[in-house]
Amino acid sequence: MFTNLRASFFLTYKAISRGNKGTLALTILVITLAFINITFISSILSGAINTAYQQAIDNYVSNIVIEPGTDDDYIEKVSSLKRSINMLPGVTSCASRYSLGSTITYDADKDGKDIREISWTIKSINPEEETQVTNIHNFMVDGQYLDKLDRDQVILGREVSGGYGAGLEIQSLKGVKVGDEITIHFSNGVTRDYTIKGIFVTKFPLSDMAVFITEKEMESVLGLHNRASEILVRLDQPGQEELYIQRLRQIGIVDEEINPWIDYIGLVSGITQSFEIIKRIVTFIGLLVAGVTIFIVIFINTVGRRKQIGILKAIGMDERIIITSYMFQALFYAVVGIGVGLAVIRFVLLPHFISHPLPFPMGMVSLLITKKELLTSIAGLILVSLIGGLIPSWRVARENIIRAIWG
């Protein structure tokens, strides 16, 4: 067997060293481009998916959301509940919020003529707690974040304020700015005026559609205390949500609804699932192109050397040696192409996109190359290359000796 492998290696070496150098370079280039295409598309889509998921955790609902039970309007005894949650190992922090429907109006000239009006849900935050579970305070593009004692101040996401690259400009307040005064008509009948203290842009649509006032202000609007519409729970390690939901049940949170962050991003989740399908399609097409390319190259080589193959068989060479030599040739194309592709990705594409991430609807996206997907691409490319080398060489090697020699 070792002798047969040596003979196959020898035939492969001679075929490559004496073959057309232009064809060799072109074949390797095609394999390189196919590998780069597979890896690049897969990694950019993986990056988009990861960005969307991370944005949901960092700037929308944190890891876990606790809401009132079906028959309740609010979560009761919030202070003691938060203390119990914070005592759980692995919980970074938690923060409570109130939510209340409203109508927001903005009279730009204060003359009753150009009044902009939208219906929106207002949420309250305790700024000190909120900064421990979300990162919205890091994305203020104008003005300032709320302070705990603010009573007549409000901060808006860009999709509410309008401007700043908002995608829902027509449904927004169409360009209100920091310092402008808006009127909020709460659904419980309370109406109050607020000054816009800040505007934030996370570039995650679901986050940028938020309007926040302080917890103290919302409690005065509702006439409530020590209750909440939702509690956000931040974990040390993402991916442990189901485990901690069980632990939250064990400490006595039984009647409330407890859900992981993934349940709150239905639209975004649908987009990421589409990305996964696109990744599979692009990978399949890339592998198919690489396999067909090697098939054509090996097929042309074997057809052009039919007489030589026939003579080798006539002097007693096992046809398996001939087939193996062409498979080694296909493997050479694949390994060199993958090596060049890895170098381009590692030293060109990856540094570029880390420094210049792409703007996607869910945020700034860079390449995310996972070891599993990279190994899958390498293994897939090697496999289709071997198949592409096997089929044409097997057909020619099994041909009748006389027919092969005389054509």
Give me the secondary-structure topology.
Elements: H1 2-18, H2 21-61, E1 64-67, H3 78-86, E2 91-97, E3 99-107, E4 115-125, H4 127-133, E5 140-143, E6 153-157, H5 158-161, E7 181-186, E8 191-200, E9 211-214, H6 215-222, E10 230-235, H7 241-250, E11 257-260, H8 266-304, H9 306-314, H10 319-355, E12 358-360, E13 363-365, H11 371-397, H12 401-406
Parallel strand pairs: 4-9, 6-8
Antiparallel strand pairs: 1-10, 1-11, 2-10, 3-4, 3-7, 5-8, 6-9, 7-8, 12-13
Helix content range: 40-55%
Proportion of residues in β-strands: 15-25%
The global form is elongated
How many strand segments?
A: 13
Structural class: alpha+beta
Distance between the termini: 31 Å
Q: H/E element string?
A: HHEHEEEHEEHEEEHEHEHHHEEHH
Total number of helices: 12
Q: What number of domains?
A: 2
Q: Radius of gyration, rounded?
A: 32 Å
Which ranges are low-confidence, i.e. pLDDT below 50, for 5 or more consecutive residues?
A: none
